[in-house]
Amino acid sequence: MDVRAVLMGLTFALIWSSAFTSARIIVEAAPPLFSLSARFAISGLIGVGIALALGQRFNLTRGQWRAVLIFGLCQNAIYLGLNFVAMQTIEASLAAIIASTMPLLVALANWTIFKERLPVMGIFGMVAGFAGVALIMAQRFGGGADPFAIVLCMIAAVALAAATLTVKSASSDGGNLLMIVGLQMLVGSVALLFPAMALEELAVDWTTPFILAFLYTTLMPGLAATFIWFLLVGRIGPTRAATYHFLNPVFGVAIAYALLSEQLSWIDAVGVAIIAGGILAVQRARIAT
């Protein structure tokens, strides 16, 4: 067993899942797109600055530059941008559950578009995972969840899946890894700045929870988790690394419940368990092929 990879995967899943709770706190006090653009600018400059201090340079390969642009646009600008906007009207736990479908979407794309062989266990896992999401969605719609915000989260999950399919090329050369992380943050910052200026008014309620959440989101999910993810993908490959996403719905709902006192019904618990089991089954099946 690769103990270091296991620890990296668990750490990534915990930090990544906590981002939904901190994001919910941020969007209650500040405009979402401006907040994200600022967060990415700070994270990106820190990442690039540390990379330069460590001797890393901007001489990336063409494939790495392409991956940086796609990852920065799909994950940072589209995925997180839409999630931040959506979390103005839906709970952090629901956004985390929808985002957790990413490994299922990646498996579906590989199976249907790229003709990757998927064993029966993986197909059953994929169906079970989407069924778990449908179970939770049915309850949340009945409880008055904002349909438009849910659609935004679904589009965001598709964008994250597209970004994940590009990660391998960005991680193939560990020598410039921190530089890659910093640059894709800056791509996201620039991409979000223009819609922020067009759609939002820059008004911030400088509360202590907002400041702490912004700092945490900037340094931990923003920089540390992304760096760990690239390291993990470079160490064990994208398929094995994506296995740890099965923890995201569990951690995401638990953290939102603990810190934001969001309601958690038995249907939510069952749905999260089904989603997590489905993701795990899909990833185990893909590893076995």
How many strand units?
0
Query: Outline, from the CA principal axes?
Result: globular
Strand share of the residues?
under 5%
H/E series: HHHHHHHHHHHHH
Low confidence ranges: none
The CA-CA distance between the termini, in Å, is 19 Å
Major sheet: size, sense and barrel closure?
Answer: none
Structural class by secondary-structure content = mainly alpha
Mean pLDDT figure: 88
Radius of gyration: 18 Å
How would you describe the oligomerization state of the chains in this entry? single chain
Number of helices: 13
Q: Into which percent range does the helicity of residues fall?
A: over 70%
The gist of it:
With 289 residues, this protein is an all-alpha fold.
Write structural notes for this entry.
The chain is an all-alpha fold and 289 residues long. The chain has 13 helices and no strands. It has helices spanning 3-27, 32-53, 62-86, 92-99, 102-112, 120-142, 147-164, 167-171, 177-199, 208-236, 238-242, 248-260, 266-288. The protein starts with a helix and ends with a helix. The mean pLDDT is 88.
